[in-house]
Amino acid sequence: MVLDQRLLPNRQDWVECTDANQVANAIVTMQVRGAPAIGAAAAYGAALQAKKLADQGISGEQFGQAMADTLNALGKTRPTAVNLFWAISRMERKLAETSGLKPAGQAASLAAEAEAIAEEDVLVNRRIGQHGTSLFTQDHNRILTHCNTGSLATVEYGTALGVIRALADASKLASVWVDETRPYLQGARLTAFELAEDGIPYTLITDSMAGHFMHAGQVDAVIVGADRIAANGDTANKIGTYSLAVLAKYHRVPFYVAAPSSTFDLNIASGDQIPIEQRDPGEVTNLLGQSIAPPGTAAAHPAFDVTPHELIAAIITEFGVVQPLTKEMIANTIGGRKS
Q1: Radius of gyration of the chain from Cα atoms?
Q2: Eight-class DSSP state of 232
Q3: Of 1, 40, 211, 292, which sits with the fewest C-beta atoms within 10 Å of its C-beta?
Q4: Minimal CA–CA distance to 237: which of 218, 209, 257?
Q5: In the chain, where the domains are located
Q6: Which residues are catalytic?
Q7: Distinct helix (H) and strand (E) counts, the chain
Q8: CA dist., res. 219 & res. 175, Å (int)
C-alpha cells in the first residue's frame, strides 16, 4: 500500500500495489516520491513480483529471467534519484546469491531484503537527524527547507526534515520556513502537512521569497535533501535548490545537505554527469488541475538542478557530517556503507 501523495493534504487515499508494474506506475506518476522512498518502493515491487512469479510454479530459469526484466523495468521509472538504482542493485545481488534455490525460496529472500532496506532507512534517518543537530550550538534556530524530505519521502522520519525534527526534539528549533516548491508544491502540500501533524511551527513562503528573508536576517540555516551526490559533493536535488544555495552563499547563511550514504554515486566525478529528469511541461502550465497560462504556452520542466559542492557547507549522513567537502572526506565518511 502506498499513500497517494498527489492528493495531499486534502485527501489521504491509499493505493494497493500487487505487482511490480503497479509499483512502477506509482513511482512514475509520483504517487510515491522522494529518493529513499522510491528505492524502498522499488525493492518491495520486486518482492511482490517475485512472489507472484513463484506462485505460478515456473522454473528457476524462467523466474530468473522474469525477475531480471522486472528489475530492469523498475530502473527505468525515474532517472535522477540514485537510491532507486542502489536498491535495485541490492535486489539483483540477492537474486544472484539465491540462484540455487527454488523460486519460492528466492522470493522469500527477496522479500526479506526489501524489508531490510526499509528497516535500515528508518535507522539511517534517525542517525542523520542526530548528526545534524551537532552543527547547531545555539537554540531557537530558524531553518529554511525546500521540497519534502520527511516521512513522505523516506520510509520514516526523514533526511533534511529528520534533522529539523531532531532539532525540535533538542529544543534548538524556533521555526521553519517552508518553500512552496513549484511546480509540484511538495513544500506547500507535503512538508507543511508533516510539520502541522508534528506541531512544529512553520511559515509557508513562495520560492521567490527566500532571498528576502535571508536579507532580513531571519534565516539561520538552509537544510535540503538530495537525489544524487557525485564523488566531489555536487548535489542534485529538487529544482530551485541551486538558486537557494547561491542566495545562501551571498547572505552567509550555512547551506546543508542531509542524505543517506545510498544517495552518493561515487562512480561519477561531478554533477555534470548526473542525469536530470525532464517532466511533463503541463505540470508547469497547470496548477492542481487548473490552467495558469495561455493555451499553447511553451514550458520547460527539469525536475532537478545541481548545486556545486563549493556552495555546500556540509553534507549530513548517517556516518557523520562531511566537512570540509572534499572527495577524500566523502570517501572516508561513507566508506562503511552497505553497497
Answers
A1: 20
A2: T
A3: 1
A4: 257
A5: 2-126, 132-333
A6: 227
A7: 12, 15
A8: 10
Give the residue-averaged pLDDT of 206-229. Answer: 98
How far is C-alpha 181 from the geometric centre of its chain's CA atoms? 14
Give the per-residue pLDDT at 334: 86
- For residue range 63-81, list pLDDT tens digits in order: 999 999 999 999 999 999 8
Phi-psi region of 13 (alpha: psi -120 to 50; beta: other; left: phi over 0): beta
88: cell is 535495485
Cis previous bond, 9, omega within 30 = yes
Q: What pLDDT was estimated at residue 60?
A: 87
User: Residue 210's closest CA among 146, 132, 306?
Assistant: 146
**pLDDT tens readout for residues 95-111:** 999 988 999 999 999 99
- The whole-angstrom separation of Cα 283 and Cα 184 is 7
Answer yes or no: are the C-beta atoms of 202 and 178 closer than 8 Å. Answer: yes
In CATH, 132-333 is 3.40.50.10470: yes
Among the four given CATH numbers 1.10.1200.10, 1.20.120.420, 2.40.128.600, 3.30.930.10, the one describing domain 2-126: 1.20.120.420
